[in-house]
Amino acid sequence: MTNTILNFQTAFAQNLNFSENQLKEILSQPLTEVLNLPELQQELNSLDTNLLKKTLPTVGGVLARELPPFYNWLKNELGVKRVPDSPNHTTTWVIGFVHNQESLTHLVELHRPVPRLALEASIPRLIGIFEGVEDAQVRQEWQKAIAALCLVLVVAAREQDRAAVAV
Predict the structure, then answer these.
(1) Is the Cα dihedral 92, 6, 143, 109 positive or negative?
(2) Going by C-beta distance under 8 Å and a sequence separation of 6 or more, which residues neighbour residue 11?
(3) Are 133 and 58 in contact (CB under 8 A)?
(4) Among 38, 58, 62, 121, whose CB has the most other CB atoms within 10 angstroms?
(5) Residue 167 in 3-state DSSP?
(6) Is the pTM here over 0.90, yes or no?
(7) What is the average pLDDT across 65-72?
(8) Per residue in 89-118, is it b (16+ CB within 10 Å) or e — as a string?
């Protein structure tokens, strides 16, 4: 896996249709406002869910191969305490999201225990998991989907950090 993405903001800028300034603005807003942003809704609605659904078997294989080392890295390098014990968790969640069975707020709740800095540090590597997908259109669509989901997670983590400082 090549790590050409230097940080999470660059990862978002490369995979989502937001400028650096738009991203800074989005990252500073409360989660409830971001979830209602027309720009985010447009980004999510622009995902080719038919392509995502059609390519789940291929991408599921990539996730099954790439996620265990990613989880080990999260646990051992970033000190994340609660890490899934198999790729099934992530694959199932992504499939649920693609099939409109999971909500963004549920995704946020599942990831609340992950420290913000670890979350932000993991995004480029998570998006990079898809570098091995040969079809450029499939690779880009999956990277865009994961980037959009991660953007919501970072907004929530930053909001949580701001609330903790304010107490």
Answers:
(1) positive
(2) 5, 123, 124, 127, 147, 150
(3) yes
(4) 62
(5) coil
(6) no
(7) 92
(8) ebbebbbebbeeebebeebbeebeebebee
Residue 90 near residue 107, CB atoms below 8 Å: no
Alpha carbons within 13 A on the beta-carbon side of 155: 28
Write the DSSP symbol of residue 84: -
Write down the pLDDT at residue 96.
74
Quote the pLDDT of residue 56.
Answer: 84
pLDDT tens-digit readout, 14-41: 999 999 899 999 999 999 999 999 999 8
Question: DSSP H helical segments within the chain, as ranges?
Answer: 8-15, 20-27, 31-35, 38-45, 49-54, 56-76, 88-98, 104-111, 116-128, 136-166
Residue 68 burial by CB count (10 A; 0-12/13-18/19+): exposed, middle or buried?
A: middle
Which two structure tokens, joined as six digits, stand for 145?
Answer: 């989907």
